[in-house]
Amino acid sequence: MTSFMTTTGLSPPSHQDVLDSSARLIDKQLQDDRNCLELSDQLKVPVHNQPSHSGLNEFDYPSFPDAGVALDCLTEVSNVKRVPLPAELVEQFGRMQCNCMMGLFPDISRACDISRAWLTIDSDIFVWKYEDGTDIAYFDGLNETILSVALVRPKQGIFQPHIQYLLCLATPVDIVLLGVTFTRPFDGSSSSGGGDMHLLPEYLFSIPTDNTFIMNIIGTDNGRIFMAGKDGCLYEIVYQADDGWFSRKCRKINHSTSTLSFLVPSFLNFSFSEDDPLVQLCIDKSRNILYARTEKGTIQVFDLGQDGKSIGKVTSVPLATIVHNASHVA
């Protein structure tokens, strides 16, 4: 038997060659990793390996187009329905001189499906059904630019029964309460949301702001109205049917200062306490707790009492404390 052996003429790689090839491969992978941004860099975390926060600034989260991500690539997000702005409102943008804002009125209760959007253009406000773009109501009786808007419940026994809600509007000069009526009551039996909405043309109440820039407004189920001031104070609008011995029909109360604060001129309060404005209010209805967030992230907690008719400040937690405590939760 004859055997044949064929050789390729190549000697097996040496141990050193294998090490050099592995080193080059690792170097390439390390270089590729260095060319990619770290997750902390993409999230704009200022200090590595330290707890951080985001959400106080609108630029904390980059937009999808700027990040090179199209909405079509996000399977979790899809357009269910798109309703354009009513043509009558689009025309109003051509008349804008100073400011415009837009938002949705939240459903005040499960039985009250408001389903309304609102738009302010300078001193005018427009309200319409966002589901189909119909039933446009408007109010143009103000002379100053509207800064804050809220739809709130009225107190029981103060107004006529046909006034089902109050529209609270804040300008740099004054705060007004408008009556809101619907062609049908909200009884939970109709899906049309109480029929057509109407804004009463005359103020129910109007009070001066006293140089306070109102940032946010929120109402409670029992008719209380709270406001966040740019001066860092929490305010409440208190109104009643008739003037009392020591109180007016409608007045503004500052819950962040002492009872002797009226001795200090309002312009001094405005100039010395505007370093951290209140920007957002939220109410926990189940516990009658009001939360206030400042521009720098401090959370203030107010107890409205078991019956929701009192108020007392419980605590104030700065952002640094919140971040520190959150980092130790896990």
UniProtKB/TrEMBL annotation:
Answer yes or no on keyword tRNA-binding. no
Domain of life, per lineage: Eukaryota
Query: Which biological process terms from the Gene Ontology are attached to this UniProt entry?
Result: protein import into nucleus; protein localization to nuclear inner membrane; RNA export from nucleus; transcription-dependent tethering of RNA polymerase II gene DNA at nuclear periphery
Alphabetized InterPro entries for the sequence? Nucleoporin_Nup133/Nup155_N, Nucleoporin_Nup155, WD40_repeat_dom_sf
Every copy of the Nucleoporin Nup133/Nup155-like N-terminal domain together lies at 75-310
Q: Which Pfam families match?
A: Nucleoporin_N
Which GO CC annotations does the UniProt entry carry? nuclear pore inner ring
- Does this entry carry the keyword Lipid metabolism? no
**Compartments it resides in:** Nucleus
Alphabetically, the GO molecular function entries are: structural constituent of nuclear pore
Write down the PANTHER family for this protein, in alphabetical order.
Answer: NUCLEAR PORE COMPLEX PROTEIN NUP155
Q: What is this protein called?
A: Nucleoporin Nup133/Nup155-like N-terminal domain-containing protein
Q: Which organism is it from?
A: Mytilus galloprovincialis
